[in-house]
TrEMBL record:
<feature type="active site" description="Proton donor">
    <location>
        <position position="189"/>
    </location>
</feature>
<feature type="binding site" description="in other chain">
    <location>
        <position position="260"/>
    </location>
    <ligand>
        <name>substrate</name>
    </ligand>
</feature>
<dbReference type="Pfam" id="PF00393">
    <property type="entry name" value="6PGD"/>
</dbReference>
<feature type="binding site" description="in other chain">
    <location>
        <begin position="185"/>
        <end position="186"/>
    </location>
    <ligand>
        <name>substrate</name>
    </ligand>
</feature>
<dbReference type="GO" id="GO:0050661">
    <property type="term" value="F:NADP binding"/>
</dbReference>
<feature type="binding site">
    <location>
        <position position="450"/>
    </location>
    <ligand>
        <name>substrate</name>
    </ligand>
</feature>
<comment type="pathway">
    <text>Carbohydrate degradation; pentose phosphate pathway; D-ribulose 5-phosphate from D-glucose 6-phosphate (oxidative stage): step 3/3.</text>
</comment>
<dbReference type="InterPro" id="IPR008927">
    <property type="entry name" value="6-PGluconate_DH-like_C_sf"/>
</dbReference>
<dbReference type="GO" id="GO:0004616">
    <property type="term" value="F:phosphogluconate dehydrogenase (decarboxylating) activity"/>
</dbReference>
<feature type="domain" description="6-phosphogluconate dehydrogenase C-terminal">
    <location>
        <begin position="178"/>
        <end position="466"/>
    </location>
</feature>
<feature type="binding site" description="in other chain">
    <location>
        <position position="287"/>
    </location>
    <ligand>
        <name>substrate</name>
    </ligand>
</feature>
<comment type="similarity">
    <text>Belongs to the 6-phosphogluconate dehydrogenase family.</text>
</comment>
<comment type="subunit">
    <text>Homodimer.</text>
</comment>
<keyword id="KW-0570">Pentose shunt</keyword>
<keyword id="KW-0560">Oxidoreductase</keyword>
<dbReference type="InterPro" id="IPR036291">
    <property type="entry name" value="NAD(P)-bd_dom_sf"/>
</dbReference>
<keyword id="KW-0311">Gluconate utilization</keyword>
Length: 466
């Protein structure tokens, strides 16, 4: 009963995470039903004397020091409940279970309440950064009991990614705050991925850039204000040659994007809250449209598309950089807006500056922009939307015109830019004090006597329109 940390689920993420814990000087005990995974972990970590593992839940739990800190890195859903049930008979009051998966936030609330009755602390802690992040330093987003977090804090701070020496982990709030924040992180991830891919398409079709040129373009962007993990890996991806044939691998990959649901949950919950996140919505829809490959191929035969007029490369690359920067800002703005509202709705008491801060390194949406976003929210935690921050006005104002030009170009050329055009439309609507929804109110009142309010006097009105 001397091991500092326990981890259930020795898949790629779990195995990498536990090795990371041991690298940082802690002792850690792994658990998995699969004997092979247990043995290979002991083999790899054994010579450090800091790692051990077992397939047996009782041996596992009894190897841990009190209060036990047990992290689960297993697929979200029923498996989490099953693992918890398997551990429960062996646990003592005050022990801590941390779900590191992408669990749906209401599942986390249910589990937290259930375990609280038994005196067990439950954390939902989103972990971002993929397999490499888990091994070398992820961004960790924990929510649960603030008191119990103190026991986990030293380990999480040690294993997390560092941004200029600061750990990319912080206590975020009670209950499912951690899973909720990770869900919105993934929604933003979907948006940024959609945007990077459509800008790639545009530069190929409008400017005739080769993969090599695209690789260099993304690499040069990554050296500037667009510096981010997703831009960086896009540059790498565009350079990758195909092992199985000629040319570049990216050209051989089937254009059907899969999804595990976290982006969709972000959109669904934003709808429930009544907060618009259209760039995230469209990113989910585009994965759905992409999946309809057979229908798309059929429809492609039925309709003509304009032939894009070529744009001079340098000017295109320059505008594309601005448009991408603009639309990245809009995507973060939407996600942060959702978090601000969810915080009130669910009582998370989120500090948006803290969230942006722990996203600066380790996670999939890490970007230079997050340092500016951190500052904006640290300066004003009640900021509803990043677009209202004085520090963002100039960044947006300087880049929006390129977004306009490219969206117009995409529309006349038949190149779909759904993320970019959505970000632009959102911007134009959000920054407009007078929208035509007065007409919708009139229509609602016309056909359903739903009433309307007026600009010029107080009260609720109904008109007999006929
Ligand atoms: C991360 C990622 C990760 C997510 C994958 C796959 O932060 O490390 O968000 O948690 O599971 O990106 O998501 P999709 O399969 O839905 O694209």
């Amino acid at each position: 009963d001397t091991y500092d940390f326990g981890l259930v689920g020795l898949g790629v993420m779990g195995r990498n995470f536990i090795l990371n814990v041991a690298d940082n000087g802690f002792t850690a005990f792994g658990n998995d039903l699969d004997k092979e995974k247990v043995n290979s972990l002991i083999e790899e970590g054994g010579d450090t004397n800091r790692i051990n593992a077992s397939t047996d839940a009782s041996t596992f739990v009894n190897s841990l020091s009190a209060p036990r800190k047990i992290m689960l890195l297993v697929p979200a859903g029923k498996i989490v409940d099953a693992v918890i049930e398997g551990l429960l008979p062996h646990l003592d009051e005050g022990d801590i279970i941390i779900d590191g998966g992408n669990s749906f936030f209401t599942d986390t609330d249910r589990r937290e309440a259930y375990l609280k009755e038994k005196g067990i602390n439950f954390f939902g802690a989103g972990v971002s950064g993929g397999a490499k992040g888990a091994r070398k330093g992820p961004s960790i987003m924990p929510g649960g009991s603030r008191g119990a977090y103190q026991h986990v804090k030293p380990i999480f701070e040690a294993v997390s990614a560092k941004y200029k020496g600061e750990p990319c982990v912080a206590y975020l709030g009670p209950k499912s705050a951690g899973n909720y924040v990770k869900m919105v992180h993934n929604g933003i991830e979907y948006g940024l991925m959609q945007l990077t891919s459509e800008i790639y398409d545009l530069m190929k079709k409008a400017g005739g850039l080769t993969n090599e040129e695209l690789h260099e373009t993304y690499a040069s962007w990554n050296a500037g204000r667009l510096q981010s993990f997703l831009v960086e890996i896009t540059s790498d991806i565009l350079a990758q040659k195909d092992d199985l044939g000629d040319g570049h691998l990216v050209d051989k990959i089937l254009d059907k994007a899969k999804q595990k649901g976290t982006g969709k949950w972000t959109s669904q919950n934003a709808m429930d809250l009544g907060i618009p996140v259209p760039t995230i919505d469209i990113a989910v829809s585009m994965r759905e449209i992409s999946a309809l490959k057979t229908e798309r191929t059929q429809a492609d035969e039925l309709y003509d598309r304009p032939t894009p007029e070529a744009i001079v490369k340098d000017s295109l690359v320059n505008k594309a950089e601005q448009a991408l920067y603009f639309s990245f800002i809009i995507t973060y703005a939407q996600g942060m807006h959702q978090l601000a509202d969810a915080s009130k709705e669910y009582g998370y008491e989120l500090q948006l500056g803290e969230i942006a801060k722990i996203w600066r390194a380790g996670c999939i949406i890490r970007a230079a922009l997050l340092a500016d976003i951190t500052e904006a929210f640290n300066g004003d935690n009640s900021l509803q939307n990043l677009l209202l921050s004085p520090s963002f006005v100039k960044k947006v104002q300087e880049t929006v015109d390129s977004a306009r030009e490219l969206v117009a170009y995409g529309a006349t050329s038949g190149i779909p830019l759904p993320g970019l055009s959505n970000a632009l439309t959102y911007f134009d609507a959000y920054t407009n004090s007078r929208l035509p929804l007065n007409l919708i109110q009139a229509q609602r009142d016309y056909f359903g006597s739903h009433t309307y309010e007026r600009l010029d006097r107080e009260g609720v009105f109904h008109t007999d329109w006929e």
